[in-house]
Design a protein that fits this description.
Layout lengths: L8 E6 L4 H16 L4 E6 L3 H8 L5 E6 L1 H11 L6 E5 L9 E2 L4 H4 L8 E14 L2 E8 L2 E6 L6 E7 L2 E8 L1 E5 L7 H4 L11 E7 L9 E4 L4 E6 L4 E5 L5 E3 L4 E15 L5 H11 L2 H6 L1
Parallel strand pairs: 1-2, 1-3, 3-4, 4-5
Antiparallel strand pairs: 6-7, 6-17, 8-11, 8-15, 9-10, 9-14, 11-12, 12-13, 14-17, 15-16
Length: 290
């Protein structure tokens, strides 16, 4: 594995809802300081002072403790400032995470000596339009979802690529996902699984009714416009964040973002497939419910 820059200034963020993550963050800080870290700082992922320091370039790397949701929130924080992320899984799945709560010691000191692999992942840009007025813009790590609201009735959704009609759906919703998000909601809706290093946009319908029911993989350079046609509530949501109401004829324009999210990896690229196979064979969500 090719040597990378030594990372000596380290932020450690935890999920405040998980007591285990707080305790583990203390152990990690002490361990890294013993092995040569110049600075370590711990805090909640929602700590405003710590977030400001990340944004101001105070850290070389951010270690996030929690599940995939914690990693998503860390990605939104770090990606605009090119701060790489190391995840330690304290949640259920951990599709985005290499390290587990019982094996982090044999890996973490390697970031201090440059013995790691840097993985770059594509992000999306989603823009909400009402007519010609842009209402809001988001950076997307996993997916943007346009779907029905509180009424259990499908909505009409039209999708266009670079201004040309692609497909129309009567469905609960439509997902536009990154390769990273292909193992999240898109997978649950029947979409294809894409290796994380790809740079494509995947479109996946959710519960289509007598409509086109296959996922479509598009190239990085396109702009996908998702329009709603509905007499009842529709919403959009980015990476599982609180939904935003959409009116009839509103649209979301989705394209590749100019930025990327970076993850520090210690395993070879084939780990993605081994990890995926492990989850497919023994779904931890099912096991937990037994």
């Amino acid at each position: 594995m090719q040597k990378k820059p030594f990372l000596k200034h380290i932020a450690i963020v935890f999920n405040p809802k998980l007591e285990e993550s707080i305790q583990t963050s203390e152990k990690i800080a002490a361990y890294l300081e013993q092995h040569g870290a110049e600075t370590t700082e711990r805090g909640s992922l929602y700590d405003a002072a710590l977030r400001d320091k990340v944004q101001n370039g105070a850290f070389d790397v951010l270690i996030a403790l929690g599940g995939d949701g914690t990693i998503l929130r860390a990605s939104h924080l770090c990606a605009p400032f090119n701060v790489p992320i190391v995840g330690i899984n304290l949640g259920t799945f951990g599709f985005l995470i290499e390290l587990q709560k019982n094996d982090w010691q044999k890996y973490l000191k390697r970031i201090l000596s440059g013995d790691y692999r840097l993985e770059e992942r594509m992000m999306l840009r989603a823009e909400h339009y009402r007519g010609e007025k842009r209402l809001d813009t988001w950076k997307v790590v996993n997916e943007v979802v346009v779907c029905r609201g509180q009424y259990v009735r499908p909505i009409r959704i039209d999708a266009a690529v670079d201004g040309f009609p692609m497909a129309s759906y009567v469905a609960d919703g439509l997902i536009a996902s990154t390769p990273t998000g292909s193992t999240a909601y898109a997978l649950a809706a029947g979409g294809a699984i894409m290796p994380p290093e790809l740079r494509n946009i995947i479109i996946v319908p959710v519960a289509p009714h007598l409509s086109f029911d296959r996922s479509i993989i598009l190239s990085e350079g396109v702009c996908v416009t998702i329009s709603v046609n509905t007499s009842h509530q529709a919403v959009l949501s980015v990476d599982g964040h609180p939904s935003v109401s959409m009116q009839d004829r509103d649209c979301v324009r989705v394209s590749a973002s100019e930025g990327n999210v970076h993850f520090i990896r210690f395993q070879d690229p084939g780990f993605f497939y081994r990890n995926l196979n492990r989850y497919m064979e023994q779904n931890p969500s099912i096991k937990r419910g037994q």
